[in-house]
UniProtKB/TrEMBL annotation:
Residues 44-181 form the Flavodoxin-like domain. It comes from Acinetobacter gandensis. This is NADPH--hemoprotein reductase. Keywords: Electron transport, Flavoprotein, FMN, Membrane, Transmembrane, Transmembrane helix, Transport. The keyword Transmembrane applies.
Length: 489
């Protein structure tokens, strides 16, 4: 083959490569253009931001009902929402939750810190915001409020005032549906996720930290039916109830109530007694008592153990124990049953791939980490690193026997425990990260997933340390890939 022919072949090969590149670029541009075209002048964009799945459920329900009403609906996870799509949309419904004390859900972090803070012109856009939250937190529905404020700063026009929902309150959701019905001239059905309640029976309860400076920490084991299923990372919701003693004391105050009527008040708030109107029947008066709330706890066991384990810290509410922790650590007697519902916590499930895992937590957050460790050991995945913080090594060395056994058997690679009240250079879990930064980076480079479970204050300290070690860009990439998962409260 002559040199001229070789040169000609190389030339045509390069032309072919350039042609193929051009086709790929044009195809990507068309796909991008089609995505933007999907949001036309008639499109109603519904965006959800969720941590536990509740906002997503409500957004899907709203989208389905609006589609039935003839609307051209597009549903998007906020993580998928681009700046161009936001600027193109003329009508948007936002269904967003707040995580912890005012944070956006993990999947909304990029939107909250980057897209929303851009210099956007949304003067052509109208919208509504449904914000889900929990009034026990000081910054109730903070992300929803922040989103609403920023949209108005960008000149978008609200259809009506922001609607807040406290713990999926039926009254709050009915108010939202009524506002949508007025806006779209279409009836909206009220539908919240169906909760399958199970009776669980207390088998044992042990104090884990006798003598500790911290509030009492208990390990509880419940017998459950085979129909109650969960994955590691899931959450159990406990319906708060009045103890037998509280009901007996109430009957002393209202001796005309019979045993059946007293039992009807088992899950009702007896601290807020409705006034009994003249001529009002007792049954109608009893209906006026508000239901006690539910409390959420990370599950500390896995399905194959055949029991449901919790780790509960006593919370002090004034001079009394909190509703949930008081019931579980004192009010509930052995072999007594209460009602529980398992909530899928998909954002804190284990990664599906077989990867190394770094578990970080403090306090009662050990519950979610224990379940994950048990599941990974069950799956013969032994590249596990646990970093856990408590108060005092003398009193707060919780679950040490199990953890040391797993490490001795090679089922946990490394355990770092720190105690904030001990005299040590490492007092908090973030101190461990900084001290072992190189090793931590090596694990991440090997594809490790990071799981964080525990208090909000600890979580903020961990986030700061992670940014120092890996940089904000890599942390956002880990979140987006599902390799940094949190369950904080």
């Amino acid at each position: 083959m002559t040199q001229a022919v070789s040169t000609l072949l190389i030339f045509f090969s390069l032309l072919l490569i350039l042609y193929l590149i051009a086709i790929v670029v044009l195809t990507l541009q068309r796909i991008r253009a089609n995505q933007l075209k999907l949001i036309s002048a008639n499109t109603l964009l519904i965006v959800y931001a969720t941590q536990s799945g509740q906002s997503e459920h409500l957004a899907i329900q709203t989208a389905a009902q609006l589609a039935e009403a003839g609307e051209q609906v597009q549903l998007l996870n906020i993580e998928q929402l681009s700046t161009q799509q936001l600027q193109t949309a003329k009508r948007v419904i936002w269904v967003v939750s707040t995580y912890g004390e005012g944070d956006a859900p993990d999947q909304a972090q990029h939107f909250d810190h980057h897209i929303l803070k851009q210099n956007l012109d949304l003067a052509h856009q109208s919208y509504a915001v449904l914000a889900l939250g929990d009034r026990r937190y000081a910054n109730f529905c903070e992300f929803g409020h922040r989103l609403n404020q920023m949209l108005q700063q960008h000149k978008a026009t609200p259809w009506f005032d922001l609607v807040t929902v406290d713990q999926l309150s039926q009254d709050d959701l009915l108010h939202w549906n009524n506002l949508l019905a007025q806006q779209f001239q279409h009836d909206f059905a009220l539908s919240t996720p169906v909760r399958e309640w199970h009776a669980i029976q207390l088998k044992s309860r042990h104090l884990l930290n006798q003598g500790s400076q911290g509030n009492a920490l208990y390990h509880l084991c419940f017998a459950v039916s085979p129909t109650m299923t969960w994955q590691s990372g899931d959450i159990v919701e406990i319906q708060c109830e009045n103890s037998n003693q509280i009901l007996q004391d109430f009957q002393v105050k209202f001796p005309d109530l019979n045993a059946i009527q007293i039992e009807q008040l088992r899950d009702r708030n007896l601290r807020d007694i409705p006034a009994q109107l003249p001529q009002q029947q007792t049954a109608e008066w009893l209906e006026g008592f508000k239901q006690l709330p539910v409390r959420e706890y990370s599950i500390a066991s896995i399905q194959s153990e055949g029991q449901l384990d919790l780790v509960v810290r006593q919370e002090i509410d004034g001079a009394e124990l909190g509703l949930g922790s008081g019931l579980l650590t004192q009010g509930l007697k052995l072999r007594q049953s209460i009602h529980a519902y398992v909530r899928c916590n998909q954002s804190f499930h284990l990664c599906k791939e077989a990867r190394p895992a770094i578990f970080i937590g403090n306090g009662s957050g050990i519950a979610g980490l224990l379940a994950h460790l048990k599941q990974r050991i069950d799956d013969v995945q032994y590249q596990n690193w646990l970093i856990y913080g408590e108060r005092q090594s003398t009193f707060d060395h919780v679950f040490s026997e199990d953890l040391e056994t797993w490490q001795r058997l090679g089922q946990i690679t490394t355990i770092n425990r720190v105690f904030s009240r001990d005299k040590s250079s490492e007092k908090y879990v973030q101190d461990v990260l900084r001290k072992h930064a190189n090793e931590f980076k090596h694990w991440v480079e090997q594809g490790a997933c990071i799981y964080l479970c525990g208090s909000l204050n600890m979580a903020q300290g961990i986030d700061d340390a992670l940014v120092e070690i890996l940089g904000a860009k890599q942390i956002n990439a880990l979140r987006k890939a599902g390799h940094y998962r949190r369950d904080v409260y």
